[in-house]
Amino acid sequence: MQDTKMDQRVQLFIETCRRRQLKITPQRVGIYRVLIQSKRHPTADLVFKTVKKEFPNISFDTVNRTLSTFAEIGVVDVVETFGGPKRFDPDITDHHHLHCMACGRIIDFEYEGYARLEVPKAIATTFKVISRRVVLKGLCDTCTAKQQMF
Amino acid sequence: MQDTKMDQRVQLFIETCRRRQLKITPQRVGIYRVLIQSKRHPTADLVFKTVKKEFPNISFDTVNRTLSTFAEIGVVDVVETFGGPKRFDPDITDHHHLHCMACGRIIDFEYEGYARLEVPKAIATTFKVISRRVVLKGLCDTCTAKQQMF
DNA sequence: TTGACAAATAGGAATGAATCCTATTTAAGA
DNA sequence: TCTTAAATAGGATTCATTCCTATTTGTCAA
After folding, report:
1. Of the candidates B80, B92, B101, B98, which has an alpha carbon nearest to the alpha carbon of residue B16?
2. Host domain of residue A49
3. Which of B68, B87, B106 is the last residue of a domain?
4. In chain D, which nucleotides are within 7 Å of a protein Cβ?
5. Strand D: which of residues 96-135 in chain A lie with Cβ below 7 A?
6. Is pTM beyond 0.90 here?
7. Residues B60, B117: one domain?
8. Same domain, yes or no, for B104 and B82?
9. How many domains does chain A have?
10. Closest residue of B to A123, CA-based?
11. Tens of pLDDT along A49-95?
């Protein structure tokens, strides 16, 4: 990500915090920066280890609590998983996910064909939909290649 | 579920175990019976508590290990979640999920419109798709009603 | 039917993830 | 500045899951 693009996102993030009356702490900004630079839907622990380079005595609890706060105010998403630790996604725009069952990688994709996954009427009346996503389980290219070696 | 329908499913389950050279133990059958009668995508702990009524000294480890085995041989699915304990789904036919963010309920639904969620070509070439599902996040009717009380 | 053996189980210990607790620090408005 | 509520660090605790090992039990072949 370009520096200017990143600064823009950080600026928007700060405005969101203000709107929600959340204090702008260096830790929060640091965690947010780590998040938007991540490409792998990181766990709290991974964010912790990364942000620790800049803030050597930040605590895990701060990182974890902050990630929950971010999810509450909508600046990140908690991603669907199949067990294991929570994973976070700084991309809150509409997109879909491939899950590799072998290596656990989550790959983002967009697709016109799913653009307006309309919600069945019978459901729209009894359930208030907030977000929609297609989740594909399978094997990524790397893992498929590995399997064929046996 | 009707008894005959259930016996049929148990019979199929037993055949699958044999095919995979898994021993048919009373615990496994008991756990499978609990699963196919569950409507709530139960956690290992809930299955454990339920099956304990019939097998008072079954261990949690047995239940948990067995559920993993079942997932491996494909007789149950591990369901996508947003953190928290693993949840299991005895319905392995194609269907979709609503997740209530307030109470955690997962509601199954089927929909013609999603019938053949075709996989984008660009993806089909690099990723081997095993299953596909639409995941809708939102609020169920009960929880929507509760929120409006405030 | 019986005996042998690998597989499965029970129960407890160990690990990992997330949350809670509390004393201390700090952002932000007066 | 000064004040105060919010946020943090660090450790303790809880909950979920996996690991370990002695014992039991399906299954298959004789």
Report:
1. B92
2. 3-87
3. B87
4. 6-12, 15-20, 25-28
5. none
6. yes
7. no
8. no
9. 2
10. B109
11. 999 999 999 999 999 999 999 999 999 999 999 999 999 999 999 99
